[in-house]
Amino acid sequence: VRAVTVPAKDVKLTVGERSTQKRRCFQDNGLNSISKVDVKKLKKILKGYGEYPEKYRHFIWRLLLKVPENTEAYGVLLDKGIHPAFENLQQVCPVKSTKLMRVLQKVLSCMAHWSSIFSISDFLPMLAFPFVKMFQNNHLVAFEVVATFILSWSQGWYEYFPHPPVNILTGVENMLNHYDNKLLQHLTRCDVSAKVYCWPLLYTVFSEVLSAKEWMILMDHVVSNHPGYLLCLVVVYLNCSRQVLMNCTDIKDFEFYFHNRNRVLISRLVTNAYTLWETCPTDIHPRSFIKPFSPLVTGDYPIFNNYPEKVVDYQLKERERIHKEELDYIKQRQLAEELKSHTAHLQQQEEVWRREQQMLSEAEDQRRKVLLAEENKLTEQRIRLQAMKRELRLHEVQVLDTARKNFIETAEKDHKEKLRLLEEEIKKKALLRELETKGAIEEAALKELELETQKGILQQELARELYVANRKQELIAADQKERSELLRRQHELDTEMNEDGATARLQGAQHDLARSAIKSMSLKHGQDNERARHINAVYTEMALNGVRQNEAASKTEKERLETVLKEATKDMQSEIQQQRAAIEQQRLETLATEERVEKLYSEIKQIRGETEDKENQEGITLNRRRESLDRRHADVLKHVRDLRYKITSDNRSGLSNSSAGASHVNHSFS
Fold first, then answer.
1. Cα–Cα nearest to 568, from 548, 541, 544
2. CB count in 10 Å sphere of residue 412
3. Which long-range contacts link 579-584 to residues 24+ away (Cβ below 8 Å)?
4. Using an 8 Å Cβ cutoff, are 232 and 206 in contact?
5. Which of 161, 263, 404, 406 has the highest local Cβ count within 10 Å?
6. Rounded to whole angstroms, how far apart are CA atoms 214 and 207?
7. How far is CA 604 from CA 279, 492, 502, 633, in A?
8. Per residue in 234-257, pLDDT tens?
9. Which of 239, 231, 236 is nearest to 187 (CA)?
10. What is the mean pLDDT of residues 557-564?
11. pTM
């Protein structure tokens, strides 16, 4: 059959003029109330303009399909929830839009609740998808549009379920044989049955081979005509694709062609379908085996049972069994996956625990090594510190022992020297006394000369008295200065020694040394004053006696002079004995002071040993306290040495003064 293009009978217009005139026609006729428009007028507009206006397409389809909008009946189906057959619809029919997927899932679930055949129908999602997409904002209308299309345009599709509708495919094949026998023979030679070239176009309603705009235009003509018009569209589509199909030989190419979008002129397809509908013979015409349009009734939805119940029930049972097995398998798989994940998690935790334990053990070993190294270092440092302290103690003991020995030797030497000097002085005095006695006897004759020189001697004595008085004042001033210096140094030592108990004992020893020094100095000054007074008295008495008894007899003078000389000698001996006693007492005091100092030194050593033991336990080195004690110890030793030297010098000066006074007396007597 040749494809014949039949123009519109009323007018011939271009595409732009048609669209403009179409808008004006709808505006003039007042299609805002679409329900009042006559269906015949709509079909005339469709034939004249090729499509319905997009703005009113939804309302026109609802009018043509006579959608009842049974809200209560649809609500009952909707309340049953998602059907188990469509719970995993996303995996079977992936859709990008989440909203569209939810609406499609609801519509298909309502279809399955309406009739159980739809729960096992594999092509239902592909059939319903374009209608649901068009009416996705109102899923009630989408459900009723799909149900109406199945009742009217899908007649006989489920009679041989689960196989394709053989009667419908046979009718299409007869129509194709009548109008394009060569194409049918080519398809037969290539083992391409109607199940390949016809059935995909029917259950997808051309949605896979046409674009969305072309599909809407095609469906404008489908919903506006007899349900058999859809079969004419299938035959015309094959005829329009004749050149491509004649060049195909592989069945996979045919399957690909009928499942993918192809370049087809939609206006030519629709026009040729109308021509075929009008020229098709009666015995093979779709009217002969397709019933006219039958809309849904208002109220409840009709019963749909145009399918083999035994086969469907068996398949439903099998599907239910398979579904249960799938659920059990999924549960077992989930349990296995959970167990596997839990096992992996436990293994991971165990691995992490092992790593942590290994890291902890390594860290502990490292810490033990570090601690052992530090302990070794501390042990070495302690050994070195103890060795240093031992050396320091030994050195201090040696220094103290050497100082003590030197002090004892010096004191013994001083004592021996003093005794030797005293013995020499005694010998000298005895010799001088003998010489003076002889000289006194010999010089008795020189009395006259002495009397002459007495005047000069008296003058010299007066000068000496003046010198002695001045010397006494100087000694008193020096004594006061030395006492003030000793008090000042004592105050300084008291201030420095108040920090420690040992220093307080050392301070007491220093006080004793100072008091002994002051006492010795006071005793020396008192002895000097007494000797000076005695010498002055002797000089005065000698002068007076010389002046008064110039004329006494030589014998009387000798006796008196011998008596005075004996008394002077006795006085000198008593003074020497007193000086020896004072020196001995001073020596004893010095020894006692030395014993106290040595005792204090031993206490200081003990305190230092305790301090060093405490410092060894605490792991600290020698500090400033030890240095300050060493400095104070050195100051005390220096001060003791100064005091000893001063006492020794004072004693020596006192002995020399006493010997000088005795020689002067003897010389005066002589």
1. 541
2. 10
3. 579/527, 579/654, 579/655, 579/658, 580/422, 582/520, 582/523, 582/527, 583/418, 583/651
4. no
5. 161
6. 9
7. 142, 20, 6, 9
8. 999 998 888 898 998 888 989 899
9. 239
10. 66
11. 0.48
